[in-house]
Amino acid sequence: MNDYTLLLLGVVCAGLGGELFVRGAVGLAHWARVRPGIIGATVAAFATSSPELSVAINSALAGNPKISLGDALGSNVVNVALILGLALLISGIQSPRDSVKRDFPVGVLIPIITGVLFLDGELSRIDGLLMLGMFCAWLVATIIEARKQRSAADKILGEHRVWLVVLSCVAGLALLVAAGNFIVKGARGLALAFGVGEFIIGATIVAIGTSVPELATTIIAKLRGHDEVGLGTILGSNIFNGIFIIAVAAIIHPITVAWREIAIALVFGLVALACTYPPRSGFIERRRGILLLALYVAYLAALFQLGVA
């Protein structure tokens, strides 16, 4: 198979596998009697980030962690600027107060911390362990908070028939593993063929492909009137991508990249979150969706300029 076919097949597998794994993982948490609040805050967010994790492990083991870095940082821009922008075009979103207090500040800090760690041009294994420690601290705080409240994530995302839960988990995981292999091989081949950096391929094509589960979850939740599920999934997914998935890739294989390459994704990711930050009322207005989509177009243009420079 040529590189285009491999990449397309990987994106399709990532979308299908991610969607199956989300429903299976949430259903498994329900079957294990995990509280619905914890499902929404952790399991759903982690499951939608599973394609990025698959790509991260495969690319790092293959000695190409730049694809993983581009995918994780690019997915964070896609999640907020593209997916949340599309959701806001449907209607405004009411942000839960706990997300404003906990997830937004962490989401804003992640690109700043990542930029600082990359000032020397490398994300070492020690840097990866530091980011992993930050992730564990956030996860503990999230679980403590989630135990105090309920969430609609279980009803929206979960499959409760045990045999379908198991089948969804197994089939989703198998597709994700295959997707990781296909995407890494295809992305690397295209990067070499067109002389475009592996980071840029990861930040554009791969990032959109691996963000399909977040897109499906957010739009479905929005159409069913459960804004907190979609917003929580996007914010949680961004945190998983930023300080867990990148950390895992760096621990497997240190990531060396020019600071100017990652600056675009970091800056646009930070600006997108800033544009989304809700006012005191917690209501994110519909017009911000147009702003976010315009920001995503500008992001692609900036990456294209970097690629041809």
Give structural notes:
The protein is mainly alpha-helical and 309 residues long. The chain has a single domain (3-308), classed as Up-down Bundle (A middle domain of Talin 1), CATH 1.20.1420.30. It has helices at 3-31, 36-48, 50-61, 65-90, 97-117, 125-146, 153-157, 162-194, 198-210, 212-223, 227-252, 259-276, 287-308; strands spanning 93-94, 122-123, 255-256, 283-284. Strands 1-4 form a two-stranded antiparallel sheet. The longest helix is centred in the middle third of the chain and has 33 residues, at 162-194. It is globular and about 50 Å long. The protein starts with a helix and ends with a helix. The mean pLDDT is 82.
List its traits:
309 residues; mainly alpha; two-stranded antiparallel sheet; 13 helices
| Head-to-tail CA distance between termini | 30 Å
Strand order of the largest sheet: 1-4
User: Radius of gyration, rounded?
Assistant: 18 Å
Uncertain spans:
none
Number of domains: 1
Structural class estimated from helices and strands: mainly alpha
The biggest beta sheet is recorded as: 2 strands, antiparallel
Give a nutshell description of this structure.
82% of the residues lie in helices and 3% in strands. The protein is built from 13 helices and 4 strands.
